[in-house]
Amino acid sequence: MRASAKRGALFSTYTHNLTKQVLASDGWSPMSQASSPCLKIVLIVTTVLAAILSKVYLLAAQPAAIVQESSLSQALELEKQKDFAGAERLNKVALRHSADNPEILKRLSIVCQQQGKHDEAIETLQRILKRAPVYPGANAQLAVSYYALNKFDKTIEAGQQELTGNPKDKQARYYLSLALSASGRLFEAIQHLENLQNDDPENLAVMYQLVVDYKAAAQQASQKLARKAPDSEFTHALRAEVLADSERYDQAIEEFKAVIRKNPEFPGIHLALGQLYWRRKDLEMSRQELQLALAEDPNQPLANYYLGDIFVTDKEYLKAIPYLQNALSTYPELTRAYWLLGKCLASSGAQTRAIAVFKKALEQDPNYKEVHFQLHELYARMGNKAESQQHLETFERLTREDQNRAREVLEQQKRNN
Predict the structure, then answer these.
(1) What span, in angstroms and rounded, lies between the C-alpha atoms of 299 and 329?
(2) Entry pTM
(3) CA atoms in the 13 A half-sphere facing the CB of 161
(4) What is the spatial distance between Cα 272 and Cα 311, in angstroms, rounded to a whole number?
(5) Which residue has the higher pLDDT, 96 or 310?
(6) CB-CB contact of 301 with 326 (8 Å)
(7) DSSP per residue over 164-208, as a string?
(8) Would you say residue 383 has pLDDT above 90?
């Protein structure tokens, strides 16, 4: 459109100059213009003609601009409807009227990616990058296509190129981390993902990838340790942790005992064994190991918590109270410890203190149904029927919701089988 306007203006100037030349050859001069009505008419006619032709050029350019704008608008609408083939066709129509428009090329690459046409997307993006090597978003999109084609080195290169001009681009950072992870460069990938999570803490894809990479990095590090020192206390401790996670408790205990034989001062070994015996329901052995852990560190929150839990299980409520209080003073996020402590206080007659502790648990988890049941019973004993009834109704509602969820899971498993 701008080119057509320029051509119209040039034509107007050319026509005006040509008229002057013709008139000059007939003896006309600016001084004689005022005294020559015929010459005035000639000038008026030529000026009007030039203006008309200039408008014609402008009008001739308008349909192309209108077609381009309409095509882009329709293409975006088709993208929303997930008609990516239709959006591709319309973007190509728009390109006929603006062949090197980088934004149209970028949208075209995106709809190609959505159809799995990554080679075509790459070719489209490279048309942008030949003229503008750091055009915003182009290298990030290039990284997406290279990653889809398992070209991880090129993904890394494209992601880093995007970040040179746009260091906060989330897509480039995410795909760069994926490519680093796929290339075995786990610690670099984790660093990028942690930085990205700090900037975008609600991104579930980033959280998931961090978990995957943490696990892979831990496995990689443990394999390296096992190769370097296959019979060290550290290798035995790692094996014990893996076995415990797999609920192979007897084998895990043997590995932990091997740790103690090699290094009786190994940090945290008694806590680890105490937790393992607790999970195996061997409460007497768990108590012994946890007391050894507290001999090393009286403020160890988990050792205090597990001991408190064991005393509650044995209905030794007064013994449990100081351990649970110690655990919560160091680790106030232990919601279940509030529930256990509230039970102990209620059983020992400290009803007001018990209510305060139960409310602390509900501040952290309003749907803790066991706490609601305890409050129902406690308020009933105190003669507060309204509060008792309210907590009973909440307990019953939460119980029904849990049962419905369990039923849905069971039905889903049946359908899958």
Answers:
(1) 9
(2) 0.63
(3) 19
(4) 19
(5) 310
(6) yes
(7) HH-TT-HHHHHHHHHHHHHTT-HHHHHHHHHHHHHH-TT-HHHHH
(8) yes
